[in-house]
TrEMBL record:
It comes from the Bacteria. Keywords: Signal. This is Metal ABC transporter solute-binding protein, Zn/Mn family. CDD domains: TroA_c (cd01145).
Length: 304
């Protein structure tokens, strides 16, 4: 009979606990944008999560840097917006990373926008239309109803990739969903004064937010999607919106405020700088992001 010392037993037990713990089996997740890193963190807080961009970067325009390639090469899965938002850089990362797990059509490739019904889907697209997304507007993270659907799909995908912790992901989803539904109800009660308001905005970054809150974007600071504002376009906007009951001119953290400030100066309509994703204005999670955006919009109403 082989005797095992107490010290050895303790070591074996510690090793077994380590093997069975979520930390030891944590997923390695590559998120294209901070909102998806935050959502992944709600469902798998023990995971190693890396966000390729920050709140102050344009998610359309990212360089396929060696550091990003290395991160994607080690990832078990990625979580990105999709619907062509990252078309200028993610395919290059996938090719150079040479990671079978995160190729398109593999379980490790998760596109959030493809999990929900998208707005502004186009049947045909030409270059003359500017930087448009034929698959629909990809900025789906600013509609809490769609975010819940995406969370459910993401928890399911995590369970498929890591079945040993499937119950863990489902439990985290259940807790997140309960908090999210209650917060959504609270936000909808708070935002009733915003219904029917009109704004001018930079790009269609807030398309889903405005749809949810029944806000109308009556004009865009961009002459065409993806093109910076021009003096002739802004002059045309000036004539278009004069005399209209505009709540304000909206732009996000990663956009140049000069055009919004010029239009505000000429019309008297206030500028409304809105947080766009997690990390902007000190927001640390999705709940804080939504709360901050709503506070910024309601402040504009009160000021008016």
């Amino acid at each position: 009979m082989v005797r095992i010392s107490t010290k050895t037993k303790a070591g074996l037990l510690a090793g077994l606990i380590c093997v069975l713990s979520p930390q030891a089996m944590a997923l390695n997740i590559f998120a294209c944008e901070p909102e998806w890193a935050a959502l992944a963190g709600e469902l798998a807080p023990e995971a190693e999560i890396y966000s390729a961009t920050t709140a102050y970067q344009d998610p359309h325009m990212v360089q396929a840097r060696p550091s990003l390639i290395a991160k994607l090469r080690r990832a078990d899965m990625f979580v990105c917006s999709g619907a062509e938002l990252e078309i200028g850089w993610l395919p290059a990362l996938q090719m150079k990373a040479n990671n079978r797990d995160v190729r398109d059509n593999q379980p490790g490739a998760f596109y959030a926008a493809l999990q929900v019904e998208r707005l502004d889907v186009m049947q045909s697209v030409t270059r003359l239309m500017g930087d448009v997304h034929g698959m629909g507007n990809p900025h789906v993270h600013l509609d809490p109803r769609r975010m819940l659907v995406i969370a459910e799909a993401l928890a399911k995908r995590m369970s498929e990739i890591d079945p040993a912790l499937a119950e863990h992901y489902q439990q985290n989803l259940k807790a997140f969903a309960a908090r999210w539904r209650q917060s959504t109800s609270d936000w909808e009660a708070m935002t009733k004064p915003l219904q029917g308001k009109q704004v001018v905005a930079y790009h269609t970054s807030y398309r889903y937010l405005f749809d949810w809150l029944s806000i109308e974007q009556v004009a865009d600071l961009e002459p065409k999607p993806g093109l910076p504002p021009t003096s002739s376009h802004l002059a045309g906007l000036l004539n278009q919106i004069k005399g209209q009951p505009i709540l304000g001119v909206v732009y996000s953290n990663y956009q140049d405020p000069k055009a919004a400030e010029w239009l505000s100066e000429k019309t008297g309509f206030p500028v409304i700088p809105l947080a766009y994703t997690v990390g902007a204005d000190g927001t640390e999670d999705l709940f804080a992001l939504y709360q901050r955006i709503i506070e910024q919009l309601l402040h504009a109403v009160e000021s008016a």
